[in-house]
Each structure stands twice: as structure tokens, then as C-alpha cells.
Amino acid sequence: MSEMISTSGLTKKFKELVAVNQVNFRVAEGQVAGVIGPNGSGKTTLFNLLSGYFPPSEGQVTFQGEDVTGQPPEARVAMGMARTFQLVSVFDHLTVWENLVLSNVRFRHNGSWLTNFFFKNARKKAILEYCQESLDTVALSDQAGTVTSELSYGDKRMLEIAIALSLKPKLLLLDEPLAGLSDHEIGEVIELLQKVKSDFTLVIIEHKISKIMDLVESLSVMNEGAIICEGEPDEVLSNTDVRECYWGREDC
Amino acid sequence: MIDTLLYGVTIGAILYIFSIGLSITFGTMQIVNFAHGMVYSLGVYLFITFLPWVAGIFPLAMALAVAAMLPIAYLVERFIIRRLYGESLDYAIIATYAVLLIGADVIKYIWGTEPQPVSDPIGIPLVIFGVVIQLYRVVVFLSAIVLFIGLKIFFTRNVIGKVVIAALEDRDGVRALGLDVNKYFSIAFIIGSGLAVLGGVLYSPITTSEPYMGFHILLLAFAVVIVGGMGNLTGTFFSAFALGMVIAITGRLYSSAADTMVFVVMALVLLKDPIFNFFRKLVGKPAIS
Predict the structure, then answer these.
(1) What residue numbers bound the domain in which A180 lies?
(2) Alpha-carbon gap, residue A79 to A56, rounded angstroms
(3) Which of B156, B175, B182, B184 to mutate to test the interface with A (most CBs of A within 10 A)?
(4) Is B179–A78 a contact, with Cβ atoms under 8 angstroms apart?
(5) Measuring CA to CA, which of A251, B43, B49, B124 is 20 to 30 A from B64?
(6) Which residues on chain A are in Cβ contact (under 8 Å) with B231?
(7) Does some domain include residue A77?
(8) CA torsion through residues B54, B58, B63, B65, sign
(9) With an 8 Å Cβ cutoff, are A78 and B181 in contact?
């Protein structure tokens, strides 16, 4: 399998603090990879480096064989990399439907002015159909007209995932998608991810390791900015260093 | 008193039209843009130059001035403002203040330092509740209302407007949709600059234009934006009219304190939490819930 995304010697320093330290991270095409680690271990910083929100202090990010280190987030999205945020990121003042339509603005302006002129309506129709499809996937169709600020946190998370799905990603980065959700909502998100995971490569940062164990095919553990262990989930979780950093020495 | 209120409404309308661009730049890019004052004053001077060329047709000269300033605004955004994004606030203040100063010097160099009067383009007095006011001032007020409604429609119905408002709420979220926010900010910046010229031109028959006119309105507009909420366009509308009224009423009672009172109001807004907390402690229960 070819590599979907990889990093080499990726480092991010915030003055004295080294948040990500010489990370070599690799995810193969079609794989579902999990990234775990204690708070402050550098997981979200790694995501911000992968998705272009932070420029690295050192190192390189390669996406589908192309060096994207200097590319801004919007260029990476155009290449097929979508992400969600730790704190759910949807536009509260818009309705659920408007959120989805807004996420597809990019597709509206693709192509030459000539094709835009002649196929404007056909394209618009296709986009709207696709938005509807994304809403159906996350079972939010009946809330299409609801102003997003009125949604529950779980539904907002579902909408955020629907938006990311509607970007037609080749790689989807989910930053703690289960954070702040009830057990029932967690079940729904996991079920959704199980359903759609075959469509793209998936990387998930998560604290609730047990919840994603059935989902992920590989696991990387971060501690103090470095990847301390990676491999098959069961193998990784039985690693002594991992158990020590994650659950403390007493639990080993 | 009615004439004072009408004066307040006129000043409020001008402050609103001028402040929109400032509020957008403040809210989206967190940049304190002093160059807005340059766009405003240079636009007015171009208008004054164009006016005799178009046989004194006010709206035509106004349209030409706005059109002439848009490329200049684009250059300011593209080569100065955009480079300041993410930099320390001080850099933005220094760089855009330099643009403001350069603008004032260019005006002095080309047009001199003499104040430039513009005559009332309508010149029809109206009698409202026994008070004589100029029809032109009513037109200025109505222009602000029309603009407010127009911008509301633009920012809620138009895709560009929607993206700008979404970016005001969550810039990173918009970038995650694959949208180049800078492109949309550029458009919003240019619209805001055009409106600054419009405000300046509409104000020119009410006041006299001089090379440093941008400095004065800029400070008042910052107060408007802070009171109304950075990037909050509805808040900017109401705060502009409220502060316009503060200027008019204070000006009537004690003219030297008119502008100062604006900043007193701004300070009270900034200090509202400590003040409310003080009263809460004083009365032992929430003063304002």
C-alpha cells in the first residue's frame, strides 16, 4: 500500500517548549490510524502541522508523495485532506443546511469561467444533492433548517463530521471526535465512522482508547512531543512504556 | 433639542459608513488599520477634484472618487495589511499609521493645507417639528439606513458575505473548508474602503475637508468599533448612532467635551465588568443579570 501521509523529522518549537520532537509518522492509504497520548503530549500540534495550521520548525510533511510542508491549510484541503477540531468547529449563526452549503463553496468555483457559465446550474444541483447526501449520512436531515447554535453538542459534532465528509477527503483527520459526548452519542459517531471508513484514510486522535480499539488498525502513542511506540493496537497497548506513560507506573 | 438629535443622527450615519471597513478588518484579521483614514481623506480630495470635471454632479463625482480609491485600497491590502496578519499588533499600528501620515503628506503636497469647503448639493431646507434642517442631512441618514439593509442582505445572502461572516466567527474553521480567507477578506476590505470614501464624501458638505481629517474620524470610529463589538456589523450600526448622539448632545451642553465624551463611553464599555462587579458587591446581589 502506498503512503497517504508521512512526516520526517517533524518538529515544532514554541520558544523553549518543544511540542513535537523529530516525529516520523506514516499512514498508509486506506488505513485507519489512531494517535493517543496524555494531555500535552503534542497530538493536536501534530495535527496542526499535518493540516498546515502551524508551520513546522523543522522537518517535512508529505501527502500522497508530494511535499506539502509549505502549503496552507486551504491548499491541503483542495488536495484532499480534511480535518475536524478538538473544540467542535461549526458556524453557529448558520442553519445546519447553510453550514453544509458553505462547506461546498469551493466546488462552486472550480473549473474555467466557460464551464462555470454553462454548467453553473448543473453544478449547483449536484452540490446540493451532495450536501443532502452528507446530511443523510449523519442522520441530520430532519434538522436541516435548525440554527446550529440550537443543536446539542453531539449533533454539532456530527455536523462537523458531515462537513468534513462533504469535502470529499482522501485523508480525514479527526481531533478527539468523541470528546464531550455522551455514551449514546459516542456510539453513534463510532457507528458512523465504521460505516464510512472504507471511503478514505482516517487518522483519529482520541483519549478514549477503548472506544476506538475496534476501529483503528494501527496505533501511535505520543509522549512529550515524540512518538514512543507504534504498531498494531493490541501490541502497542501491551508495551510497558506505553502503559507507564498512559496509566502510570502502578498499573503496569 | 430636535436639531441636536438630528445632528447626532447625521454624525452617527457618517460614523457608521466609515466604521464598517474598520470593524471588518479588526474582526477578521485582528489588525488595527489606521490606513482607513488615508483612504477616507484621499477619497474626499479626489472627489473635490472630480466635482468641477463632471459639471458639479455630486453623485457622479462621488462614484468616480470611490472607483479611483478601490485600486489604491487593494494595493494597501495586498502589500501592507496582508503582510501584517499574524504579526504583533504594534507592527500593524506602526505600518498603517505610516500609510496615514504618507496620505496626509500627499494631500498637502498636491492640494495644499487650506481647508476645502464643499457646498450642499441639495440646498433645500426642511421644517421638521418647527426646526429647519437641510434635506441633505436627511439624505445622509437615509443612505446609512439603506447601506445597513444592503450590507445585511449581502452578509446573509451572498456567498462572499457569508464566508466573511463565518470567518469572523471561526477563521480556522473556514480554512478547513478549503477556502482562502485572505481572498474573501480582500473583497471585504475593498468594500469597506469604498464605504469609507462614501462616508467622507457624504460628510464633506457638512464639514470642511483638510489633510488631517482622517485622523479625527479614525479615533471616533475606533470608539464606535470597540463599543459595537469588533466585527459586529449590527453592533457597529447602533454604536455609531449612539455615539453620534453622545457627540451631539455633549456638544450642545459643553462643546469642548463632545469628542471626549465618546471615549468616556468607550471606557465605560471596556470597564463594564469591573463596574458591574463593584455595584454587585455594593448591593450584595447582581446589579445587572
Answers:
(1) 3-90+160-251
(2) 19
(3) B175
(4) no
(5) B124
(6) none
(7) yes
(8) positive
(9) no
Q: Chain A closest CA to B112's CA: distance in Å?
A: 46
A192 part of a folded domain: yes
- B115: domain CATH number? 1.10.3470
* Continuous segment of H or E residues that includes residue A124: helix A113-137
> How many structural domains are present in chain B?
1
Query: What pTM does this model have?
Result: 0.80
Long-range contacts of B278-285 (CB under 8 A, 24+ apart): none
Between the CA of residue B38 and those of B42, B148, B197, what are the distances in Å?
6, 23, 10
Number of domains within chain A = 1
Q: Residue-wise pLDDT tens for chain B (289 aa)?
A: 778 888 899 999 999 999 988 888 887 777 888 999 999 999 999 999 999 999 999 999 999 999 999 999 999 999 998 888 777 888 989 999 999 999 999 999 999 999 999 999 998 998 877 888 889 999 999 999 999 999 999 988 888 888 888 888 888 889 998 898 888 888 888 999 999 999 999 999 999 999 999 999 999 999 999 898 887 888 999 999 999 999 999 998 988 888 888 899 888 888 876 766 666 666 654 433 3
Residues of A at the B interface, defined by Cβ within 8 angstroms:
51, 53, 72-74, 77-78, 82-85, 89-94, 98, 102-103, 105-106, 108, 163-164, 167
- Residue numbers of the domain that contains B134: 2-258
Which H or E run includes A19?
Answer: strand A17-23
Residue B20 C-alpha cell reads as 464598517
Residue A21 placed within a domain = yes
Nine-digit cell string for B46: 479626489
Inside any domain, residue A201: yes
Highest mean pLDDT among A54-63, A84-93, A127-136, B275-284: A54-63
User: How close does chain B come to A52, measured CA to CA in Å?
Assistant: 10
Structural domain includes residue B125: yes
